[in-house]
Structure formats: structure tokens, C-alpha cells
């Protein structure tokens, strides 16, 4: 599962790189788990490392 930590600054980079449009940003990013394909692009592109993979 992809989770967004408190380090999120709301830059929306993750939302822009998500191919399944599973992230919305309203102040802080939020992952819509049902839509997430677990490609982990958001993890790789987050400039503040606020997105984590949790088993």
C-alpha cells in the first residue's frame, strides 16, 4: 500500500506522474487505494520523500 506521510508539502508532483490518477491533492496528497496500480512512480518522483510503500 502507498501512504503519504506528514512530510507532504502539497506540491502535486505525485499527482502529475500517476498514470492511474489515483492521487488527489487538497493541501496534502491523498492516495485513492482502489485506483492505485502500485507502480510506485509517486515514490520515485516525490521531491521531499513523503510517500512510502507499506506492506
Report strand order across the widest sheet.
Answer: 1-4
Strand residue content: 25-35%
Task: Calculate the mean pLDDT score and round it.
Answer: 97
Number of strands: 4
| CATH domain topology | Alpha-Beta Plaits
Residues in helices, as a percent range: 10-25%
Order of helices and strands: EHEEHE
What's the main sheet like?
2 strands, antiparallel
- What general outline do the C-alpha atoms trace? globular
As for the number of domains, it is 1
Query: Structural class per helix/strand content?
Result: alpha+beta
Instruction: Identify the CATH class.
Output: Alpha Beta
Described by its quaternary structure, the protein is: single chain
> What CATH architecture do you see?
2-Layer Sandwich
The end-to-end span amounts to: 6 Å
Could you tell me the radius of gyration in angstroms? Answer: 10 Å
The tally of helices reads 2
The poorly predicted ranges are: none
Can you characterise this structure?
With 55 residues, this protein is α+β, with helices and mostly antiparallel strands. The protein has a single domain, classed as Alpha-Beta Plaits, CATH 3.30.70. 18% of the residues lie in helices and 25% in strands. The protein contains 2 helices and 4 strands, in the order βαββαβ. The protein has a two-stranded antiparallel sheet. The protein has a two-stranded antiparallel ribbon with strand order 2-3. A hairpin with a 1-residue loop joins β2 and β3 (28-31). The longest helix has 5 residues, at 13-17.
Amino acid at each position: 500500500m502507498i501512504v503519504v506521510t506528514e512530510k507532504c508539502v502539497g506540491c502535486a508532483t505525485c499527482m502529475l506522474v500517476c498514470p492511474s490518477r489515483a492521487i488527489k491533492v487538497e493541501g496534502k496528497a491523498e492516495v485513492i487505494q482502489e485506483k492505485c496500480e502500485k507502480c510506485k512512480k509517486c515514490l520515485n518522483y516525490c521531491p521531499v520523500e513523503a510517500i512510502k510503500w507499506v506492506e
